[in-house]
Design brief:
Blueprint (H helix, E strand, L loop, with lengths): L2 E9 L1 H19 L5 H22 L1 E11 L2 E8 L1 H25 L2 E7 L3 H15 L2 E7 L1 H9 L6 E5 H9 L9 E6 L1 E6 L10 H10 L3 E4 L3 H12 L3 H4 L3 E4 L5 H5 L5 E5 H4 L5 E6 L8 E7 L6 H12 L4 H6 L3 E2 L2
Parallel strand pairs: 4-5, 4-6, 9-10, 9-11
Antiparallel strand pairs: 1-2, 2-3, 6-13, 7-13, 7-14, 8-11, 8-12
Helix pairs in contact: 1-2, 1-3, 2-3
């Protein structure tokens, strides 16, 4: 009996197709059931660029042919090294699974406390940021004052968006990282009435004084910056005793809702908080030096779980592309 061993390399196209299909399945199964369609689509170019050379390389199948002569009869037996193909497919499955699952592992969740004044801006910008980065933003909206109290009592958000004064105070208290303050936008306080109602004259301090005295009820934020400022305004105008009994305090949320529901004849708040309320009309901003321009800023927590993700969010909402959204929502852009 004699045998001739001839090692050879062959380009096996059917095997290539089989490997390609197996690798494609590996991409889906290796990533796991939690892999979203969005992440698969985002990584498709990367997958293809790695898959293509591997597919071509693995299609070169090394085979060993052995011609055997047994009992005087000729029998041809060709053995293909299927083991290597199986190992290659298993390796590709693991490799592609880890590669595709990697963005899921890197995705971060950033917890944010955001002032009501910046809410409408944030509502529009956050989905854009999440689509771009794959990170998840968990947001709580409230007044700056309430946030300060919550943080004092142990709340630890990764990022705070509030008045610049509040951010500076939290930094001094060690609640936010030193040097992390980034100014985002400025806001003015305005007065609104129910849509279709006569608009009071507020063009001058004296005109505003007369209109406040004539009003039957005035909605005012109990914990917002605008609410505290309004109390100072009526003190400066010398009408605090006459106006305070007419104030309808709004615990939280937009004062515009109280105007629409007929609970108040007029109300005042940050312009950015009045603007989205349907059923009211903004008369205008507080006149002259009675106006208070508030800067809203971002501050990073000293104990942020993922500092790089939080920084990326601040960069996104403070960048030039975000400025048109800020202006559209009734605030003044910093650019």
């Amino acid at each position: 009996m004699s045998a001739v061993v001839r090692p050879r390399f062959a380009l096996d196209l059917p095997s290539s197709c089989g490997l390609f299909c197996c690798a494609a399945k590996a991409v889906l199964y290796g990533a796991g059931a939690k892999l979203s369609k969005r992440l698969v689509t985002a990584n498709a170019p990367k997958v293809f660029m790695i898959l293509l050379p591997l597919m071509v390389s693995l299609s070169i199948v090394y085979t060993t042919s052995t011609d055997s002569f047994i009992d005087g009869g000729k029998a041809l037996r060709r053995t293909t090294m299927r083991t290597w193909s199986k190992i290659a497919i298993a390796g590709m499955a693991a490799g592609f699974g880890m590669m595709i699952a990697a963005p899921v592992a890197r995705a971060a969740e950033v917890t944010v406390m955001c002032s009501n004044a910046f809410k409408e801006v944030f509502l529009e910008l956050v989905p854009q940021f999440e689509r771009t980065t794959g990170n998840k933003i968990s947001v709580t909206y409230d007044s700056t004052t309430n946030f300060q109290n919550q943080i004092k009592n142990g709340a630890k958000p990764d990022l705070v968006i509030a008045t610049d004064e509040a951010i500076d105070t939290l930094i001094k208290q060690g609640k936010l990282a030193a040097g992390s303050r980034v100014d985002l936008a400025r806001s003015r306080i305005g007065i609104a009435v129910r849509a279709g109602a006569p608009k009071p004259d507020i063009r001058t301090p004296e005109a505003l004084k007369k209109s406040l005295l004539a009003a039957k009820s005035i909605a005012n934020s109990k914990s917002g910056i605008s609410g505290f400022h309004f109390l100072n305004v009526i003190e400066r105008l010398g009408i605090a005793d006459q106006v305070k009994p007419k104030i309808v305090e709004v615990e939280s949320g937009p004062v515009g809702v109280f105007i629409v529901n007929g609970k108040a004849e007029m109300g005042l708040q940050q312009m950015s908080e009045l603007l989205p309320v349907a059923g009211i009309e903004i008369v205008g901003p507080l006149p002259g030096d009675l106006q208070k321009i508030t800067t809203f800023s971002a501050g990073l927590s000293a104990t942020a779980k993922d500092l790089s993700a939080a920084k990326a969010l601040v960069k996104f909402v403070s960048g030039e592309p975000a400025q048109p959204v800020i202006k559209k929502k009734g605030m003044e852009a910093r650019w």
